[in-house]
Amino acid sequence: xxxxxxxxxxxxxxxxxxxxxxxxxxxxxxxxxxxxxxxxxxxxxxxxxxxxxxxxxxxxxxxxxxxxxxxxxxxxxxxxxxxxxxxxxxxxxxxxxxxxxxxxxxxxxxxxxxxxxxxxxxxxxxxxxxxxxxxxxxxxxxxxxxxxxxxxxxxxxxxxxxxxxxxxxxxxxxxxxxxxxxxxxxxxxxxxxxxxxxxxxxxxxxxxxxxxxxxxxxxxxxxxxxxxxxxxxxxxxxxxxxxxxxxxxxxxxxxxxxxxxxxxxxxxxxxxxxxxxxxxxxxxxxxxxxxxxxxxxxxxxxxxxxxxxxxxxxxxxxxxxxxxxxxxxxxxxxxxxxxxxxxxxxxxxxxxxxxxxxxxxxxxxxxxxxxxxxxxxxxxxxxxxxxxxxxxxxxxxxxxxxxxxxxxxxxxxxxxxxxxxxxxxxxxxxxxxxxxxxxxxxxxxxxxxxxxxxxxxxxxxxxxxxxxxxxxxxxxxxxxxxxxxxxxxxxxxxxxxxxxxxxxxxxxxxxxxxxxxxxxxxxxxxxxxxxxxxxxxxxxx
Length: 541
Description:
Layout: H1 3-25, H2 27-49, H3 52-71, H4 75-90, H5 105-121, E1 141-146, E2 152-158, H6 168-182, E3 187-193, E4 198-204, E5 222-227, E6 237-241, E7 244-248, E8 250-254, E9 264-268, H7 274-285, E10 290-295, E11 311-315, H8 318-345, H9 351-354, E12 357-362, H10 364-374, H11 384-393, E13 395-402, H12 411-416, E14 419-423, H13 428-435, E15 441-442, E16 451-456, E17 462-465, H14 479-488
Parallel strand pairs: 9-13, 9-14, 10-11, 10-12, 12-13
Antiparallel strand pairs: 1-2, 2-4, 3-4, 3-15, 5-8, 6-7, 14-16, 16-17
């Protein structure tokens, strides 16, 4: 061994030995020092916890004790010995080892997701599979992101080319697995890139649920169905939210003679706000249109509209619904005749022809079942003329029903209502049937009331949160939400309030109508035009 290496090794051994002896020699001092630090920390904590008014007396007692110890024979020596013994006892515990570092959340959750996707994306005949039981998620997951709570926020993964990504059932299986591993309490958007065999997953932020019914900044004929993400709308409108004015992106449905989708079909799970959507549409349409409301469920959800200006009738019985819809069909035909005559004569059409008429039907399939049982005409069949010629006659039809009753909706209603809304958590097949296209968003397991999806015509489905439009006659509803709806009604009503009416846009006067008595035969004609004696409101069932 060379001399220099021998001296270096000898020096390291001597330094190590000296360090061991020094640590053994100074070990008692280390223990006492650790105990003194504990005592100082304890005293500092007690001093900070002592109220300010008691700190003066505490200092006085401490000084008195020190003076007494100083005056005692050998007091300082005994106090020092007691302090060292106490410090040695407090510092006897060794220093706590550092806490082990927390495991990376990606190393915990992504392998589990990879293992769950393997049975669905692995091929038995693939010689070089992307997914196999001994594989690594890093080979297929191109990028990922977790939020502050450790939940998956974004993920991009690759899948083999032979996976049937064009089949909705195959996609639904993968989406269900991803949502189960990432959390069912949130909505996820799945972007399938079929050209490059990539799947991009993004967790969507919750939509605001504290927007109440109010006057929205829209043009005549525009209806705000609800609010969506920033990517789902190309504009924002000011709304009252939480006591302040904020900008929110709306889902706007344009109606009228130039609308490409003049009629709306809303389906939803029970309790998720289809009736609230009908009330919201009615309150927005009342300033510039007349309404005919048919409540097929007969629960009185729309009783707040009875006797309001612009509301022809609110029907809950089968006989009343048949009479109202038969009048609506005759009114549509009359409007078409008057408009054609005005065009041929080169004059402006009458005002009672150009004023929009809205037919709002809530759960009409229940009346259809009752009509079939009694051998009467189906109320949905009476919508044929308003649906086919409503655009030209300024007649708009809105149908809302339970999603389980979609098979009982007539083909003519489904074919002519190209503006679609579905509310509540729905499966892939139900969402496809309701919207007419596969939904690229997986709903959350638990959704608030009014949460759903909307599709206008052939556009892409977007998320939707309907404004909170409660029944003002429902005593269990919050008072603030009830007052917001009452403020939008055309005039005050003794059932809800007794003061003067709120300000609403002026309504043009319609020509007086000749009073007509209702025929008990539902097939007879009925005149529901506004005027003295022309209306006979029925009591709510």
